[in-house]
Design goal:
Protein name: Glutamine amidotransferase domain-containing protein
Transmembrane segments: 6-31, 38-57, 670-689
Number of strands: 37
CATH class of the largest domain: Alpha Beta
Helix content: 10-25%
Oligomer: single chain
Strand order of the largest sheet: 16-15-17-18-24-23-22-20
Organism: uncultured Pleomorphomonas sp
CATH architecture of the largest domain: 3-Layer(aba) Sandwich
Radius of gyration: 44 Å
Keywords: Membrane, Transmembrane, Transmembrane helix
Structural class: alpha/beta
């Protein structure tokens, strides 16, 4: 029981205080005038005020509240290396047992999940959440079993949020060493066909037994682009070409160091997102026709396309006497387009074009060379019979997968997607093409061909080729053997998917990765790895997936996902670079953040958490004092808050709580009834007796 004095006044406190002040003033005046009986009057007034204040003895039944001690086990990825899990489990179990048997302690185990993200290990954030409902004066301290790689340690006690000791018990051996690559400059985005500079440093943490120069390999999308020789601490730069849109995965890999903790951080990954500048398209139209505006409108509506369009309205042989100064048309810049700047274009389209003497044969040679070197050509064929003005009688002929034979079919038909086209990404999934007959309008003209050696994706009447794609050298060629796609654009009989079709053709010709017909793709999200194989074949070959730690998993049977698409899903337990191959194609995917903070440094250390531990009176100590030594878990004790330090040789301490809760209260009046009356009468009687004298 805890005793104390309390008051339960009969009058408001303000009245009692005012009465007391008035009594003091009167007594002071009497004393100043030397009037007799001042002390007796003071005693009488004091007893009167004391009776009005009603003093009481209060007995409290107090129950002491235990100190809350947080115990944290670091389960981050770096703690899974070099025997650290076993040390963590053993130290955690020992501390838990000792704290559980310590009187006046409420143990709170803090779940610290693996934090393999860009922010690294954030144990103090977990502690703050776990202790958010505990008053600051009841927090006895925190004990953390970790490798010391904590990335959210507060700089001072104010950032901690409470005043109690923090103890950091570090796993791992004192003599650990590790090799790593550190990226110092890496772009996030880059224009396709540009060159970007990547800078990196070779670092050997700890006392490395080998500090000599080693070869460091730089790869882009699995292909070696450079090998540089570096010594630890040296920084180098390499220029990386960005060949395609989308993710360009660049790896910088150093050889492993014998006896190092882990080779996981010997490779760093930079994911550079390739962004196309405006795609340059050259559209050359021959005789004006209804479909010419369809091509122009479609290409102009695409913000990513920079269109150059010429229509040959006036051939050189046309002599009608019109004065030159009255002609509003500019001269066709054939030399500039097809000689000087032809390689600047991503795609050349001939729309119902005939030679008619505008382009010399030399320029057709340039176009053929442009395609063979990686360019793209689209022929939109009209009713041009095979004659002397046809482009099919030119150096382009060897590149064309189909040659018109001079016959034109003029009969109503609905364009149909072939079996091969149903598997090709250009025509697979076209709106309205999933039924027979397709839900789109009819066309009325088709140019017959011979020597068809390309991939026929769409057909006309009697299965005759309508859309043919072909790879020629390093480039690509497409032929649309009808000029009536404009009927779909105008909404004739409900129209059809002209925009999707023409856009897919153009983007396939310009080698957009999403439209590759033979592709292996790898992607990771939500702890799963998705493998997708796109092929024109009926089945897909087995795929072997290599994990970041070097282990492999073979997927023998990819499940059908749709026409021409096969896939599988498997767990992706580790962050890092995954590789998939079917023997022909290879795909890479990086799961998790590139260069996660968790793996940047793996050598265990007491340094990051030492300042906050010592500022709170705690300690940052190793559980092993020498390499291969036994685990030395300190004993635990409780100390008063005035202790100042909570750690010593072989022990750690926690702050004993001084908080309590009141279980019951008893009150005993000390100045009431006969006692108060007797004392007051005695004082008044004494005063009367003094005055009577």
């Amino acid at each position: 029981m805890i005793w104390s004095i309390a008051f339960a006044p009969l009058l408001p406190v303000s009245v009692l205080v005012g009465g007391g002040i008035l009594a003091l003033a009167v007594l002071a005046l009497m004393a100043f005038r030397r009037r007799p009986g001042v002390l007796l009057r003071a005693l009488a007034l004091a007893l009167l005020l004391l009776g009005a204040a009603r003093p009481q003895l209060v007995a409290e039944d107090r129950k002491a509240l235990p100190s809350v001690v947080a115990l944290v086990a670091d389960r981050s990825a770096s703690q899974s290396l070099a025997g650290r899990p076993a040390d963590t489990d053993a130290a955690y179990a020992t501390l838990k047992d000792r704290l559980s048997h310590l009187p006046g302690v409420e143990l709170r185990e803090v779940p610290a999940a693996a934090t393999d993200n860009a922010d690294g290990t954030r144990l103090f954030a977990d502690v703050a959440r776990a202790l958010s409902d505990v008053p600051a004066d009841r927090i006895g301290g925190v004990a953390i079993v970790t490798d010391g790689r904590i990335h959210d340690a507060p700089k001072d006690v104010a950032g901690l949020g409470f005043s109690a000791p923090v103890h950091v018990l570090v796993t791992g051996d004192p003599g650990e060493y590790d090799r790593r690559i550190e990226l110092t400059a890496s772009p996030k985005f880059a224009l396709v066909r540009s060159t970007q500079r990547l800078s990196f440093r070779l670092v050997d943490d700890g006392r490395s037994p080998d500090g000599g120069a080693v070869p460091v390999v730089v790869r882009r999308d699995g292909e070696t682009v450079a090998t540089v020789t570096m010594a630890p601490g040296e920084e180098r730069s390499v220029d990386i070409a960005i060949p395609h849109a989308g993710n360009n995965i660049v790896e910088v890999e150093a050889p492993p160091l014998a006896g190092e903790i882990s080779p996981l951080n010997n490779t760093e990954v930079a994911v550079i997102d390739g962004v196309r500048q405006a795609l340059r398209v050259l559209l050359v139209s021959g005789e004006p026709h209804a479909g010419e505006r369809t091509w122009r409108n479609l290409l102009k509506s695409d913000a990513s396309v920079d269109l150059v369009h010429f229509t040959i309205l006036r051939p050189p042989e046309k002599q009608d006497g019109t004065p030159i100064d009255e002609l509003s048309l500019i001269a066709f810049p054939t030399r500039e387009l097809f000689d000087e700047k032809i390689d600047d274009f991503d795609l050349i389209i001939f729309d119902r074009y005939e030679k008619r003497g505008v382009l010399p044969l030399l320029y057709f040679d340039n176009i053929a060379r442009y395609v063979a070197d990686g360019g793209a050509l689209l022929m939109a064929v009209g009713p041009d019979p095979l004659n002397a003005d046809s482009v099919y009688d030119s150096p382009l002929a060897p590149l064309l997968p189909a040659i018109p034979d001079g016959n034109i079919v003029e009969t109503p038909f609905r364009p149909a997607v072939t079996a091969l086209g149903a598997r090709h990404p250009v025509t697979a999934g076209l709106p309205g093409g999933d039924v027979d007959p397709p839900r789109w309008s009819r066309w009325f003209r088709l140019v017959e061909t011979r020597e068809n050696r390309g991939d026929t994706l769409m057909s006309g009447p009697d299965g005759k080729p309508l859309l043919v794609l072909s790879r020629e050298g390093k480039g690509r060629v497409a032929m649309l053997l009808s000029d009536e796609v404009w009927l779909w654009a105008r909404g004739f009989e409900g129209g059809g998917p002209h925009a999707e079709l023409l856009r897919n053709i153009a983007h396939w010709l310009m080698s957009e990765p999403e439209l590759e017909e033979e592709a292996l793709r790898l992607s990771g999200e939500g702890g799963r790895l998705a493998v997708e194989r796109r092929t024109l074949k009926e089945t897909a070959a087995p795929v072997t997936v290599t994990f970041p730690d070097g282990s492999e998993q073979r997927i023998a049977d990819l499940a059908p996902l749709g026409p021409g698409r096969f896939g599988a899903s498997l767990p992706a337990p580790l962050p890092g670079l995954y590789k998939a191959t079917d023997g022909t194609l290879t795909a890479l995917a990086h799961v998790g953040p590139a260069n996660p903070r968790e793996f940047r440094a793996l050598v265990s250390t007491t340094e990051p958490a030492r300042p906050i531990a010592e500022a709170t009176g705690g300690a940052a100590i190793r559980l092993r004092t020498e390499a291969g030594g036994s685990l030395d878990v300190p004993t635990v004790a409780m100390r008063r808050s005035a202790a100042g330090t909570y750690a010593g040789d072989g022990w750690i301490g926690f702050k004993a709580s001084e908080a309590y809760e009141v279980a019951g209260i008893e009150t005993v009046p000390v100045y009431l009834g006969l006692l108060a009356t007797a004392l007051l009468l005695l004082a008044v009687g004494g005063l009367w007796w003094r005055e009577s004298r």
